[in-house]
Amino acid sequence: MSLNAHLQELKKKHQTLSDAVEAAQRSPGTDDLEISRMKKEKLHLKEQITKLSTA
């Protein structure tokens, strides 16, 4: 997989996770720990994107 394709896949996953976090925050029944886990995963993806973009 090329670097560009990998970056695009990471960005797509980040956006999907971002949408999921927003939806979970609007839903009163969602577990705070699950939201926290998704936010951490989202941050990890963002760090990977940044690292690969500057390489």
Structural class from helices and strands?
mainly alpha
Mean pLDDT score? 94
Helix content: over 70%
Strand content: under 5%
Q: SSE order in H/E notation?
A: HH
DSSP summary, beta strand count:
0
Q: What spatial form do the alpha-carbon principal axes imply? A: elongated
The biggest beta sheet is recorded as: none
| Terminal residue distance | 16 Å
Specify Rg, calculated over alpha carbons: 13 Å
Given as residue ranges, the uncertain stretches (5+ residues, pLDDT < 50) are: none
- Supply the number of structural domains: 1
Number of helices: 2
Please name the defining characteristics of this protein.
55 residues, mainly alpha
Descriptive account of the structure:
- This protein is mainly α.
- It has one domain (3-54).
- 85% of the residues lie in helices and 0% in strands.
- Helix 1 packs antiparallel against helix 2 (32-54).
- The protein starts with a helix and ends with a helix.
- 2% of the residues are buried.
- The model has no long low-confidence stretch (mean pLDDT 94).
Helices and strands, with pairings:
Blueprint: H1 3-26, H2 32-54
